[in-house]
Amino acid sequence: MRVRFVGDMLYVVLDDGREIGITVKKIKWLKWLAQATPKQRSHWTIDTHGDAIYWNELDDGIEVCHLLATRSLVTA
Question: Which CATH class, in words, describes the domain spanning 2-74?
């Protein structure tokens, strides 16, 4: 997986090539990520199972299944 930000958009590329794009400011449960600095956003890791993205500095993360549930799917 890959993670990148463009402005307030979070893009996650999955292992199967799909890309999920969501606006972090529009989703209440991502308020912590919307308020993070670009530097904080850039320090992410993927958990050992590959099903979540975690920001150690922010002490929070996102499970891929929750991203998929937003229905903001963009095909790569």
Answer: alpha beta
pTM of the model: 0.84
Distance CA 61, CA 52 (A): 7
pLDDT tens digits, one per residue of 14-47: 988 989 899 999 888 999 999 999 999 999 999 8
Cβ distance 55 to 40 under 8 Å? yes
For the chain, the domains span: 2-74
Q: How far apart are alpha carbons 60 and 76 in whole angstroms?
A: 27
- Letter for the amino acid at 49? H
> How far is it, in rounded angstroms, from Cα 14 to Cα 63?
12
Report CA-CA distances (Å) from 58 to 24, 30, 74, 76: 15, 12, 26, 28
Kindly report, residue by residue over 51-72, the tens digit of the pLDDT.
Answer: 999 999 999 999 999 888 875 4
